[in-house]
Design brief:
Elements (H helix, E strand, L loop, with lengths): L11 E8 L10 H15 L3 E8 L3 E8 L2 H11 L10 H20 L11 E5 L2 H17 L14 H5 L8 H8 L2 H10 L11
Antiparallel strand pairs: 1-3, 1-4, 2-3
Helix pairs in contact: 1-3, 6-7
């Protein structure tokens, strides 16, 4: 099995996922889920758009678009912050996120050592059809792994945020447009059996 995983590229969609070291849990208490998402938006929003996610007890999945470098620079120029911009690999933002979450969890539950497997997994998404199937797969994951008999009952995914009208940091309008409409989004999730074949190892 190859040990080298390529760096993330700007302007590309990815399936990002990771699991606990030695298949251990990464969420130990109810409040850990909110802490995870809080740090996710803090560390990942500057570099990537989040289209879907699901947080399970021992692993998580996300569909993200790494922003184009020229767009990042343009936005910072408008804000007058370009002088402080340091170009770095997008994967560094994710590493910072994993390290921050692991530190907080280790302190909270009095554990030591690595929390996540390294390196984290990233698979490029190369078509709209693949992106749609990936988003459905991410949302169906709790059902696939037996955490719930119906994925819609799982509270820690983006599914309900994407079909609601409440404010969200997700790319809701673009996700629903990808599926055609909110109704199509719901229908397709219900019609497709839990998917496999996305190279996850959990």
């Amino acid at each position: 099995m190859p040990t080298e995983i390529p760096s993330l590229s700007y302007g590309t969609f990815y399936h990002i996922y990771n699991r606990g070291n030695n298949r251990e849990n990464i969420f130990f208490q109810e409040r850990n889920y909110a802490y995870f998402t809080e740090l996710w938006w803090k560390h990942i929003s500057p570099i990537a758009e989040t289209w879907a996610y699901n947080l399970l007890r021992n692993h998580f999945h996300a569909s993200v678009f790494i922003k184009r470098l020229e767009d990042l620079k343009a936005n910072l120029t408008v804000l007058g912050n370009l002088s402080g911009f340091k170009e770095k690999e997008p994967s560094q933002y994710f590493s910072n996120f994993f390290n921050a979450y692991a530190r907080g969890i280790n302190i909270a539950v009095q554990r030591t050592g690595a929390l996540f497997q390294r390196p984290f997994k990233r698979i490029p998404v190369d078509s709209e059809d693949y992106l749609m199937r990936l988003i459905v797969y991410i949302h169906q994951n709790p059902q696939k792994h037996g955490f719930e008999s119906d994925f819609r009952n799982w509270n820690y995914s983006s599914y309900h945020q994407l079909i609601s009208d409440l404010p969200t940091r997700l790319q809701r309008e673009r996700v629903l447009q990808l599926f055609g409409s909110r109704e199509d989004f719901i229908r397709i999730h219900q019609e497709i059996e839990p998917l496999t074949g996305f190279d996850e190892e959990d």
